[in-house]
Amino acid sequence: MLIDKILSNLNNFADLGRQKAFELGNPYYYQAANDNEYWRKEMPTGEIFLVLFEVKYDQDGHPIKIVDTFQERIS
Fold this sequence. Notes:
Elements: H1 2-7, H2 11-23, E1 28-30, E2 39-42, E3 48-57, E4 63-73
Antiparallel strand pairs: 1-2, 2-3, 3-4
């Protein structure tokens, strides 16, 4: 089954999330091992930035907004 094949390699989840973010025109955020408190923000255009990452929540605790602060361009 296709789902069994996908689930057999959990690395696919990151790729699927990245693909979906780009399909929606959104950036994809991820944290590399050597980035400490910083996150990488990959744009659908392929540009990658190092950012500080904060999630804003509503009164019920649901995430409503991502606020990132630019640190430097990686590529």
